[in-house]
Amino acid sequence: MSAVATVAPPTARPLAVANWLLALCGLILLMVIVGGITRLTESGLSITEWKPITGAIPPLTEAHWLREFELYKRIPEYQQINRGMSLAEFKNIFFWEWAHRQLGRVIGLVALLPLAWFWFRKAIPDGYRLRTASIFVLVCIQGAIGWWMVASGLTQRTDVSHLRLAVHLLTALFIFAFCLWTALDLRSPGAERRRMPTIAIWAFAVLFLQLLFGAYVAGLDAGYAFNTWPLMGDELYPSAAPWLEPLLRNFVDNPITVQFIHRWLAFGVLAMAILLAVRVRRDGGRRESLFLHIVVGLQILLGIATLLSGVHLHVAVTHQAMAVLVVAAFVAAAHRLALGQGRTADPSIDLRSAVAAE
Per UniProt, where does heme bind (predicted)? Predict the structure, then answer.
C-alpha cells in the first residue's frame, strides 16, 4: 500500500497548511536565486560576523559602514584578491550577502509563525504535526549551515569550502522537496501520506549525484575550466589535465574532472526522468510527465549555455534556479505516481471518496 491514512480533527485545515508550505517553496526558490547571485558576484564573505537578530539591520551611518569594511579587510579574500577595493564597491557586495541573510530570516519567520498558529488552532491534520515541526527545525539548521559555510572562508581560504557549499545547497533543495511533497500529500484525497515509489527513489538518487557535482562545480569555479561543448577543448577529456593524489580526490577537488562528470551525468538524469515520465504518464499524469520533460531538457540546454557563455551571470543564475524546478518536477511526478499506485493498491480510498461526494 502506498498511502498511510490520517485522521483529521474537526478543525483541521489541510489545504491552508499545504498553501503555507507552497509559499515556503516559493521563498526557497527565491533564496536559491539570491544565493546564486551572491556566489557569482563573490559577495558571500562580505559580512564576517553572524548576528541572526541584530544583523537584520544594515549599516546606517558612515561609521557603521567603515567598521564593516575594516572587518572585511582582515580576511584573506580582501588581502589577496580585493586589496584596494573602494567603500562603494564593498557596499555592492555587502548588499547581496545581506539580502541573502535577510531572506533567510524571512523564511525562518514564515516557517515558524504560521506553524505556531496552525498548531494552536489544531489545524494540522493528525500525522503531519511532527513533519511540519521538523520543517522549521530544518530551516534553523540550514541557517547554521550557512554560517558554517561562510566561516570556512574567513581565516585561511579566499573562498568558502566547496564541500560546505554543497551541504548548504543540497540541504536547501531537500527542504524544498520535503515541503512540496508534504503539501501535495495534504492536497491529495483524504490528506493521505504517500510513500515514494521505488523507481522514483532511484531517479532521485541519480538527481542527488548531479546536484552534488553541480554544487562542486559552483564551489570550485569549475565552470570556467572549459567553455566548449561537447568537447573539453579538442578532447572528450583533456589528456594534459593534472591529476590529484590519491585518485579519489579528483572526483571532489579537481575542477576539470568535476566539470566532466557534471556534463555527462546530466544525461543520466535525463534517462531517469524519461523512465519516470513514462511511468507517470501511464498512470494518467500527463501534466507531470510533460513538466518533467520540459524542465530537464531546459536545464541541460541552460547548462550548455552557461559553459559557452563563460558562466555569464544571468545564464548561470537561471541554471541554478532551474535546478529547483527540476527537483519540483521530480517530486510532482513521483507523487503523482504514488497517488496512482495508492488508488490501485487500496480501492477503498476511491470508495471513501465516492461516499463523501454523496
Answer: 262, 319
Q: What is the 3-state secondary structure (H, E, C) of 158-201?
A: CCCCHHHHHHHHHHHHHHHHHHHHHHHHHHCHHHCEECCCHHHH
Residue pair 177/327 in contact by the 8 Å Cβ criterion: yes
How far, in Å, CA of 275 to CA of 262, rounded? 20
Handedness of CA 243, 246, 251, 255 (dihedral sign): negative
Cβ contact 285:197 at 8 Å: no
C-alpha cell at 92: 555592492
What pLDDT sits at residue 340? 78
Round to whole Å and give the CA distance between 149 and 131: 26
Annotated binding site: 262, 319
Grid cell in block for residue 257: 574532472
Which residues on neighbouring strands pair with residue 235, listed in sequence order? 232
The domain segmentation of the chain, as residue ranges, is 11-193, 195-358
Instruction: Label residue 334 exposed, middle or buried (CB < 10 Å: 0-12, 13-18, 19+).
Output: buried
Three-state SS string over 312-325 comes to: CHHHHHHHHHHHHH
- Other beta carbons within 10 Å of 56: 12
The SS3 of residue 232 is strand
Q: Do residues 300 and 270 touch, judged by C-beta distance below 8 A?
A: yes
Q: How far apart are CA 162 and CA 146, in angstroms?
A: 12
> For 226, how many CA atoms within 13 A lie in the half-sphere containing its CB?
23
Task: Tell me the average pLDDT of the chain.
Answer: 92
b/e per residue, 112-142, with b = 16+ CB within 10 A? eebbeebeeeebbbebbeebbeebbebbeeb
Dump pLDDT digits (tens) for 221-265: 999 999 999 999 999 999 999 999 999 999 999 999 999 999 999
- The band of 356, judged by pLDDT with boundaries at 50, 70 and 90, is very low
Helices (H) then strands (E): counts for the chain? 12, 2
* DSSP structure class, residue 3: E
- Rg of the chain over Cα atoms, rounded to whole angstroms, equals 23
